[in-house]
Amino acid sequence: MANAIPTNPTPEQLVAEFMLLLDLEQRGGDLFIGRKHPEGLGRVFGGQAIAQALGAARRTVADDRHTHSLHAYFLRSGSDEFPIEFRVKRDLDGRSFSNRRVVASQNGQPILNLIASFQKPQDGLTHQYAQMPDVPPPEELRPDDQIRREVAEQLPDGPMRKLLLRPRAIDFRSVEPRDWLDPEAREPQAHCWFRTVASLPDYRPIHRAVLAFCTDFQLLSTALQPHGRSFYRGEVKAASLDHAVWFHGDFRADDWLLYVTESPWSGQARGFGRGQIFSRDGRLIASVAQEGMIRPMPKKS
Q1: Going by DSSP bridges, is the β-strand pair 257-267/270-279 parallel, antiparallel, or unpaired?
Q2: For residues 249 and 116, what is the distance between their CA atoms, to the nearest angstrom?
Q3: pLDDT tens figures, 194-227
Q4: Residue 87 located in a structural domain
Q5: Entry pTM
Q6: Contact 108/82 with Cβ under 8 angstroms?
Q7: Could you write out the three-class secondary structure of 109-142?
Q8: Domain count within the chain
Q9: Cα–Cα distance for residue pair 299/173, rounded to 1 Å
Q10: Catalytic amino acids?
Q11: Residue 211 belongs to domain with CATH number
């Protein structure tokens, strides 16, 4: 299992620990075990479960086929106290595409179902209608990590403070100013840059797994923006319900990527979000969609 993250880790140590988290132990056949987070705080982060499930599926596919989409349903909350078991079903190996089903379980109960599709590289008709927004570059923005530390200083000791202070292998930089504790209502759209804090290996599946991990950040919170509610004050109970990612082209997750999210609808204790991810040169490299449970709680002073 993963070791505890050292005090004041270097960027390289953070990324090495992140790679270990996404690595899997094979237990024979198509059964894999995903490591638990070394500094877990209770509930498994959805992006971790998705990235590990994708990694399990990828281990059963030929090297000449690359992930082009995944669709996941979150069934139960996972616990950071235990590793996750991933069982893979090989549904299709055709001439161009392979398809895999993955069931992620803890203590004998499924917590996630994921379907992933893989394709041999092929030439075809090409266009890109989506345009990259004109936003400030990441060098002009404060790292979210700095802002999280400032927010943590205003909170009492507890899981939320510990979560905000936890070192991260991903450097997020939000374009729009964010008041994490007392947000004002605003339009349901957001932009943020992200990349790993140190270099990654030159291996395409790793970069796609890292991107899948990152897509679970920010998307559901965009649905909260019109309502002026804060996760960090306990004003909302939220959880991802389903999640989909389509990979459109090659990229590096250790280079800056722009995540553009919007929420066209929320209601019935659910929120819907969709996202586009652009490389720095303006290529649309992935699209994302997610629906999550959003249950309002009494607002706190």
Answers
A1: antiparallel
A2: 16
A3: 999 999 999 999 999 999 999 999 999 999 999 9
A4: yes
A5: 0.94
A6: no
A7: EEEEEEEEEEECCCCCCCCCCCCCCCCCCHHHCC
A8: 1
A9: 27
A10: 216, 240, 290
A11: 2.40.160.210
